Amino acid sequence: MQSGRQQRRGDTRQRIQDVALELFAEQGYEKTSLREIAEHLDVTKAALYYHFKTKEDILISLFEDLTGPIDELIEWGSRQPRTLDTKRELLRRYSAALASAEGLFRFMQENQATVRELSIGEMFKERMLSLMALMQEPDTPLENQVRCMSALFTLHAGSFALKSFEGDPEEKRGAVLTVAIDLVSQAHGDDTRR
């Protein structure tokens, strides 16, 4: 019986996160209130407070839940040799992580000033610095270091910029990934695109 109760609580928590992220992305973080989130869920503010005390608590929980794959990727990458194949695989896995957390990354892109002010901004910055460190090699020419760093940003920018393009989302994501891999391959002097 208790597992059913825990399941319902988990469902409520997930519903709160989904509705909050949708409202944050549509209206902006600052313009969305806890009362409004509760109204969209058809629950009382007290029910909402049971799970989250503040909007930032909701956002932090979203960030922690949806960026787990990025933390796993950083952990995996830190154990790998700094080869071209490793960097290509880092980009593939990061592209998949971005796709699985698309709503959160869309929110972060559209609410950059708010994200910088909240604790998640610093958490995300730390993750990006860790990923960039995995892509960099200090003894390579600066242009090649920039190519490797730009590959990560290509994945970010492409996921948002291509929203207005017609076509299948997976094809668009694949095209962006190909360009990112091309940048890393150029940095390593390799023209084979795997």
Total helical elements: 11
* Count of DSSP strands: 0
**Terminus-to-terminus distance:** 51 Å
Question: Could you state the order of secondary-structure elements as H and E?
Answer: HHHHHHHHHHH
- Uncertain segments are 1-9
Computed over alpha carbons, the radius of gyration is 19 Å
Q: In what range is the share of β-strand residues? A: under 5%
Specify the biggest β-sheet: none
Structural account:
This protein has helices at 2-27, 34-41, 45-51, 55-66, 68-78, 84-100, 102-110, 112-117, 119-135, 142-161, 169-187. It is mainly α and 194 residues long. It folds into 2 domains: 2-54, Homeodomain-like (Arc Repressor Mutant, subunit A), CATH 1.10.10; 67-187, Tetracycline Repressor, domain 2 (Orthogonal Bundle), CATH 1.10.357. The radius of gyration is 19 Å and the shape is elongated. The N and C termini lie far apart (51 Å). The model is unreliable at 1-9 (pLDDT under 50).
Helix and strand arrangement:
Layout: H1 2-27, H2 34-41, H3 45-51, H4 55-66, H5 68-78, H6 84-100, H7 102-110, H8 112-117, H9 119-135, H10 142-161, H11 169-187
Helix pairs in contact: 1-2, 1-4, 1-7, 5-6, 5-9, 6-10, 6-11, 10-11
